[in-house]
Amino acid sequence: MKKTTAYQKVASYEAKKNEVKKILLLYSGGLDTSVMLKWIKNQYQAEIVALTLDIGQQHDDLEKIKQKALKLGALKAIVLDAKDEFAEEILTKGIKANACYQGDYHLSTPMGRVILAKKAVEIAKLEKGPQRRDRICR
């Protein structure tokens, strides 16, 4: 007789309820990340730190985005000014490399993901709680 095992997703890490206590959510303030904030809060009862970067986007009211995250249940909402670092470390390299898609579409949006990932790691290290050595993220 075969032994049955519980479902375990292996393509990426999938948190189990009551296992994750604190989450850093990269938060734009739009519909998708707002729904995710509420869903994570309801499903995992975890503390959520919302991170929003200011990389020079013109139409975002960053204070409203911060307040929205808090209203939806974030424990903390961080708006980080990364304009200078984004321009000096990422955009200048993109300009030098003529980073564009099919000649017309400049890749500033995908390049923004680079600084977002970098800052997310930095903030996660600052915000982390006690580390558990018995769990490996896959």
UniProtKB/TrEMBL annotation:
Pfam families attached to this UniProt entry: Arginosuc_synth
Please state every residue range assigned to the domain named Arginosuccinate synthase-like N-terminal: 22-128
Q: Biological process (GO) annotations?
A: argininosuccinate metabolic process; L-arginine biosynthetic process; urea cycle
What GO CC terms are in its UniProt record?
Answer: cytoplasm
Q: Which Gene3D superfamilies match?
A: Argininosuccinate synthetase, chain A, domain 2 (3.90.1260.10), HUPs (3.40.50.620)
Q: Kindly list the GO molecular function terms attached to this UniProt entry.
A: argininosuccinate synthase activity; ATP binding
Sorted keywords for this record are: ATP-binding, Ligase, Nucleotide-binding
List the InterPro entries.
Arginosuc_syn_N, Arginosuc_synth, Arginosuc_synth_CS, AS_cat/multimer_dom_body, Rossmann-like_a/b/a_fold
Task: State the superkingdom.
Answer: Bacteria
For whether the record's keyword set contains Ligase, the answer is yes
Q: What is this protein called?
A: Argininosuccinate synthase
Look up and give the organism this protein is from.
Candidatus Roizmanbacteria bacterium GW2011_GWA2_37_7
